[in-house]
């Protein structure tokens, strides 16, 4: 086998590390996207019984966005396996306790219930902010594009840029809203 073919074969079977920024993203739509990378669905060598998935690092899980009033209405179930051990936790309470748990549960629920789900979840690394260990960042070779563009807050824009923005109406100095 030539060196070129060996390199191509190595690249085909290698595990790639991806980076995904979850800031202002819906965790359930993001989970569908991350599933294809974790299971290796985009690779030409994919087979349901073949474990060819990649590693995915998710940052900023503390800043995820749920639609509407899902923070108040979405409930997560947990059972301790003891009598009377069933608990239902609201999404905002769970997120306050552990900012990575909602994203983790979203990806876990999207993966099919098969024997490889536990191994697939071991390749998912979720961090609440941008502090990722240096050893992991050295492995990253791809960034996954966000599903929707994160909005820019007004206090993130420089004062000079806000002042130079063209105005449609110039209000008088003594103008008061009624």
Your description of this structure?
The protein is α/β, with parallel strands linked by helices and about 180 residues long. About 35% of the residues lie in helices and about 15% in strands. The protein contains eight helices and six strands. The protein has helices at about 5-15, 25-40, 70-75, 90-95, 100-110, 115-120, 135, 160-165; strands at about 15-20, 55-60, 75-80, 85-90, 125, 140-145. The strands form two sheets. The chain has a four-stranded parallel sheet with strand order 5-2-1-6, covered by helices on one side. Strands 3-4 form a two-stranded antiparallel sheet. α2 (about 25-40) crosses α5. It is flat.
Q: What features would you highlight for this structure?
A:
178 residues, alpha/beta, 4-stranded parallel beta sheet, two-stranded antiparallel sheet, 33% helix, flat
**Treating each run of at least 4 consecutive H or I residues as one helix, how many helices?**
8
Q: How helix-rich are the residues, as a percent range?
A: 25-40%
**Overall SS class:** alpha/beta
Question: Secondary-structure element sequence?
Answer: HEHEHEEHHHEHEH
The global form is flat
Question: Unreliable stretches, pLDDT < 50, 5 or more residues?
Answer: none
Q: Biggest sheet: strands, sense, closure?
A: 4 strands, parallel
DSSP, total strands:
6
Radius of gyration: 22 Å
Into which percentage range does the β-strand content fall?
15-25%
């Amino acid at each position: 086998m030539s060196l070129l073919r060996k390199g191509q074969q190595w690249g085909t079977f290698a595990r790639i590390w991806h980076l995904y920024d979850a800031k202002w993203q819906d965790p359930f739509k993001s989970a569908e996207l991350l599933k294809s990378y974790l299971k290796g669905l985009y690779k030409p060598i994919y087979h349901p019984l073949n474990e060819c998935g990649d590693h995915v690092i998710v940052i900023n899980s503390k800043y995820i966005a749920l639609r509407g009033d899902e923070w108040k209405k979405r409930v997560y179930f947990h059972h301790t396996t003891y009598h009377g051990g069933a608990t239902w936790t609201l999404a905002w309470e769970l997120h306050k306790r552990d900012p990575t748990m909602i994203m983790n549960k979203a990806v876990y629920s999207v993966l099919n219930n098969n024997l490889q789900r536990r191994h697939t979840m071991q390749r998912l690394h979720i961090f609440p902010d941008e502090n990722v260990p240096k050893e992991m960042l050295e492995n990253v070779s791809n960034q996954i594009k966000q599903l929707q563009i994160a909005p820019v807050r007004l206090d993130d824009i420089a004062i000079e840029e806000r002042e130079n923005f063209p105005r449609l109406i110039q209000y008088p100095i003594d103008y008061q809203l009624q």
